[in-house]
Amino acid sequence: MNPYSVDPNQSYSAPPSDMISGNDGTQFNPQGNQLGAGSATNWFSVGFGSFKAAPGVWIGMALIHFVIAIVLGVIPLGSLASYILMPVFTAGFMMACQAQFEGKPIGVDMMFAGFKEKFGSLALLGLFWLIGIFLIAAVIGIVVAITIGGAVATSALSGGNVASALFGLGFGTILLLFIVAIIAFIPVAMAISFAPALVVFHNVEPFEALKLSLKASLKNWGAFFLYVILTIILGVLATLPIFLGWLILWPTMIGAMYGAYREIFLVPANTTASM
Questions:
Q1: Number of C-beta neighbours around residue 135 at 10 A
Q2: Does residue 174 fall inside a structural domain?
Q3: What are the pLDDT digits (tens) for 61-110?
Q4: DSSP β-bridge partners for residue 20
Q5: Are 267 and 33 in contact (CB under 8 A)?
Q6: What is the pLDDT of residues 105-141, one digit of tens each?
């Protein structure tokens, strides 16, 4: 059984009348199917199946991608470029998964396929992603300023020691910043998650792709919550053997996201709105 196939017995919400037919026995549902939280475990199963089908290629792509990330991180403005290019590389990885679904051989060169296909639209997604990260940083900065300013003002008015007041912020402040960062990051991550796939597979315009990705992700918040929890647990385990586990986990996560895209945005071609 193809691990990427869309289960005709899956309980989908009724698809709209504007679905776009595909050439693989499925239709594109722009509104996104509503799945159970347990679907997240299937996504990881699909992802690991993708890795097992071509482990050498996926490890090669992982190593190349890590090296590129390191290089961009040390050159001037490289970090900004990495944000803009992130959806471009993601699209290439999605196309590699699609090729596996179609039974075609893949090579490490496929990770650069996004530079040849829809590069402008994908780079625009990257610009939106960069803006989102900047906005998150701004929100955190405002929270830090308010927290520190409040502590200083309170200490000054009460005649206390300002340095002691700042030191006393400690763990509580760190926890607050972490919570704020997570809350701010979630919608940005949801918006970018499926946008590259929607652009390259369905010719969706960048801003519309972000909206569809966010809407579908919110509709499936339970599955995404479980996905995040599993990612954290597996990430800790992958980090223990001097990060070597990421050579398996990272490709698995790529395949999992492709599996999630297929389950959320595709339905069997014989599905009708009267379901």
A1: 12
A2: yes
A3: 999 999 999 999 899 888 899 999 999 999 999 999 999 999 999 999 99
A4: 28
A5: yes
A6: 999 999 999 999 899 999 999 999 999 999 888 888 8
- Beta-strand runs (E) in the chain: 20-21, 26-28, 266-268
Residue 214 lies in a domain: yes
Residues whose CB falls within 8 Å of the CB of residue 275, separated by 6 or more in sequence, listed in order? 12, 14, 15
The total of structural domains in the chain comes to 1
| Domain span holding position 225 | 20-268
Q: Taking the chain, what is the end-to-end CA distance rounded to the nearest angstrom?
A: 25
Q: Is residue 169 part of a domain?
A: yes
With a CB cutoff of 8 Å and minimum separation 6, the contacts of 74 are none
Cα–Cα dist 42/152, whole Å: 50
Quote the Cα angle for 246-252-257, to 5°.
125
- Joined tokens for residue 127: 């610009």
Q: What does the chain come to in residues?
A: 275
The stretches in the chain having pLDDT less than 50 are: 1, 3-4, 6-21, 273-275
How would you write 132-166 as a 3-class SS string?
HHHHHHHHHHHHHHHHHHHHHHHHHHCCCCHHHHH
- pLDDT at residue 108, as a whole number: 95
| Alpha-carbon distances of 135 from 27, 77, 147, 228, rounded to whole Å | 35, 18, 18, 22
252 occurs within a structural domain: yes
Measured CA to CA, the distance from residue 209 to residue 268 in angstroms comes to: 21
pTM for the model: 0.82
Q: In this structure, which amino acid lies at residue 232?
A: I
Phi, psi of 269, deg, nearest 5: -60, -25
Strand, helix or coil for residue 264: helix
Q: Which residues contact 254 (CB under 8 A, 6 or more apart)?
A: 47, 50, 58, 90, 93, 94, 97
